[in-house]
Amino acid sequence: MATVTLTAENFDEVAQGDGIVMVDFWADWCGPCKRFAPVYERSAGKHDDIVFAKVDTDAEPELAQRFGIRSIPTLMAIRDGMIVFAEPGAVPESVLENVIEQVRGLDMEDVRRRAEA
């Protein structure tokens, strides 16, 4: 599956749905972002049930500000409308796959319960 470009206009619509949305915050001038891009694209090709999205922080500064993005690339995982992971830095493919499996394995009832407490 190809990656989806997220903007201020479509972010909430995509992120608030059921399932998993992986988000890569990046910029064209960012060397680590360019090195991480093929890793992210390969994972997108392996997981048809996950939305892989990208936010260009230069084109969408309000989204970067909204989520407190201070370093790029930043990888964010959203499951069933809740941010469950956000970490700056380019990660190797094995780490990205591990994050995906951990997000899949979450007990979302427990996550919601803890968030409300």
TrEMBL record:
<keyword id="KW-0249">Electron transport</keyword>
<dbReference type="InterPro" id="IPR005746">
    <property type="entry name" value="Thioredoxin"/>
</dbReference>
<dbReference type="InterPro" id="IPR017937">
    <property type="entry name" value="Thioredoxin_CS"/>
</dbReference>
<keyword id="KW-1015">Disulfide bond</keyword>
<feature type="active site" description="Nucleophile">
    <location>
        <position position="30"/>
    </location>
</feature>
<dbReference type="GO" id="GO:0005829">
    <property type="term" value="C:cytosol"/>
</dbReference>
<keyword id="KW-0676">Redox-active center</keyword>
<dbReference type="InterPro" id="IPR036249">
    <property type="entry name" value="Thioredoxin-like_sf"/>
</dbReference>
<dbReference type="Pfam" id="PF00085">
    <property type="entry name" value="Thioredoxin"/>
</dbReference>
<keyword id="KW-0813">Transport</keyword>
<comment type="similarity">
    <text>Belongs to the thioredoxin family.</text>
</comment>
<feature type="site" description="Contributes to redox potential value">
    <location>
        <position position="32"/>
    </location>
</feature>
<feature type="domain" description="Thioredoxin">
    <location>
        <begin position="1"/>
        <end position="105"/>
    </location>
</feature>
<dbReference type="InterPro" id="IPR013766">
    <property type="entry name" value="Thioredoxin_domain"/>
</dbReference>
<dbReference type="GO" id="GO:0015035">
    <property type="term" value="F:protein-disulfide reductase activity"/>
</dbReference>
<protein>
    <recommendedName>
        <fullName>Thioredoxin</fullName>
    </recommendedName>
</protein>
<feature type="disulfide bond" description="Redox-active">
    <location>
        <begin position="30"/>
        <end position="33"/>
    </location>
</feature>
<feature type="site" description="Deprotonates C-terminal active site Cys">
    <location>
        <position position="24"/>
    </location>
</feature>
<feature type="active site" description="Nucleophile">
    <location>
        <position position="33"/>
    </location>
</feature>
<feature type="site" description="Contributes to redox potential value">
    <location>
        <position position="31"/>
    </location>
</feature>
